[in-house]
């Protein structure tokens, strides 16, 4: 218990189940939630047969990479959940930084939570949620990190940790992620620690001040990346002093 009376989050609060193969670690976590699991459960798999990214895109999931999902139950009031992806990105960045050799290309976060090394994508994060029949809210954080395998036909430039000189195994990387996530979720404090999280995120962000294009479901919009607000929304300066807040979209630089 912290001096302010709140319950602290520690490594011992989390469980881990390692699978050889599954359709998707996110789907596995959701099935556990529907069956009554209490949350704080990590599920990892050596291979996924139906991995997916944002907007239903296929996520290539051959052996050699890290595929991990974390099940959280009622992690925060709904109005404070929007900042969780920023916290997750900070934790993943921290874990990858631990296994990169000195002199590796810059490790940065692309809004909201893609992890880039030298402006090339090495990690995707997919956050999904569902209200359960018993009233609890299940939130699943899916994390796929290219350790030694990369997709053949990517939408973006991609890299993997092996290409960046890291000899870490998926298991070693997950050990760092397990620890970093507990530390960052404690700092996030059910959304109350958003100020600390956004400060950490800004310090590792990619492209603030640069010209970007954001692809939305119905259109594309361009401008200067003016950073994020205190709730994690992307602030796009479209000119003439007009700042457009964006809650979700795909960002492209240049």
From TrEMBL:
Catalytic reactions on record: biotin + L-lysyl-[protein] + ATP = N(6)-biotinyl-L-lysyl-[protein] + AMP + diphosphate + H(+)
GO molecular function: ligase activity
Domain BPL/LPL catalytic residues, every copy: 12-189
EC number, UniProt record: 6.3.4.15
Keyword Ligase: yes
Pfam families, alphabetized: BPL_C (PF02237), BPL_LplA_LipB (PF03099)
Keyword Nucleotide-binding: yes
Keywords for the protein's UniProt record, in alphabetical order: ATP-binding, Biotin, Ligase, Nucleotide-binding
The protein's name in its UniProt record: biotin--[biotin carboxyl-carrier protein] ligase
Organism per entry: Rhizobium anhuiense
């Amino acid at each position: 218990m912290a001096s302010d009376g709140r319950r602290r989050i520690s490594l011992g609060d989390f469980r881990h189940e390692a699978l050889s193969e599954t359709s998707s670690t996110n789907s596995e976590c959701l099935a556990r939630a529907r069956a009554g699991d209490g949350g704080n459960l990590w599920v990892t798999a050596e291979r996924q047969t139906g991995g997916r990214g944002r907007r239903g895109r296929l996520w290539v999931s051959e052996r050699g990479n890290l595929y991990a999902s974390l099940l959280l139950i009622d992690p925060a009031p709904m109005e404070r959940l929007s900042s969780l992806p920023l916290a997750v990105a900070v934790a993943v960045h921290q874990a990858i930084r631990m296994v990169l050799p000195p002199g590796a290309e810059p490790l940065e976060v692309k809004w909201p939570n893609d992890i880039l090394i030298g402006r090339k994508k090495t990690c995707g994060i997919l956050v999904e949620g569902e209200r359960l029949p018993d009233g609890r809210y299940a939130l699943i954080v899916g994390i796929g990190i290219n350790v030694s395998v990369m997709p053949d036909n990517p939408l973006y430039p991609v890299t993997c940790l092996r290409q960046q000189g890291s000899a870490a195994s998926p298991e070693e990387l997950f050990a760092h992620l397990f620890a970093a996530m507990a530390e960052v979720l404690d700092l996030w404090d059910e959304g109350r620690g958003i100020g600390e999280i956004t400060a950490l995120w800004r310090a590792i962000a990619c492209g603030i001040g640069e010209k970007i294009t954001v692809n939305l479901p119905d259109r594309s919009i361009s401008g200067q990346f003016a950073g994020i607000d205190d709730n994690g929304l992307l602030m796009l300066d479209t000119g003439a002093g007009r700042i457009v807040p964006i809650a979700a979209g795909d960002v492209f630089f240049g």
